[in-house]
Design goal:
single chain, about 100 residues
Length: about 100
Amino acid sequence: MSDLKKRWGIETNFQLTIIFIVFAITGSASAWLSKPFCFWLGITKSDLGYWFTPVRLLLIFPIYQVLLVLIGFVFGQFKFFWAFEKKMLKRMGFGFFFKE
């Protein structure tokens, strides 16, 4: 755990625990929200067959990113999750959204 704390720039075990809780809540919330979101868009398994799961995952991805920052904010970890989000999006090729 000390290596992870060092890599993420975290100083306390409490902060690390909060970050793990935020990741858990965000993952569960995005999975839970994916069903009504797909229903709202009219995407059903009967329409897409085997393509339903990959399409659903692609749709959930932006929801997860937004929820991660919002839930991180609620738990007082906005600074960590905003930096985490920017780093991840830059690695995915979306760095042009953020000015240095």
